[in-house]
Amino acid sequence: MDALNFPPFDYKVTKSGANYLIFDILRRKNVVLTPEEWVRQHLVHYLINALGYPKSLISIERGTSYNKLQKRTDLCVYNNQGQAHLLIECKAAHVPVTQQVVKQVSIYNQTVQARYVVITNGMQHYCWEVDFEARTYKPLQDIPPFY
């Protein structure tokens, strides 16, 4: 797997048949180690270990619907009141973060209504603060820490 632009973490990888598996601390099980999962696991550990987000507030691949279409968010982090705080879209390191990816996560956020939107391919990270009342967004330098 590619070296990513995240701090290292103590991961557990095993092999099962033709697949490599990585232990997911949120789902508490081994999951297939795809390039996108590699990015997601790095980000999960970064959120918990560096930014102080509690594991209990992080949801992986939660279903949502938009215009009667079923969609899955890569990660959604909630605040203590149960409201969506961070909506995160992960891509594999070799997948560029394009306008189409920004559009994808923006569409998801119309339903989720998270205050912050994050897009990462493990090498580049983008974060915006969304103000739904003013219908504006503000680019941020970093993902905000848990408060």
TrEMBL record:
Entries under Pfam families matching the protein: HSDR_N_2
Organism name: Pontibacter oryzae
Record-annotated Type I restriction enzyme R protein N-terminal domain positions: 35-144
Keywords attached to this entry: Endonuclease, Hydrolase, Nuclease
InterPro entries hit by this protein: HSDR_N
Name the record gives this protein: Restriction endonuclease subunit R
GO molecular function: endonuclease activity
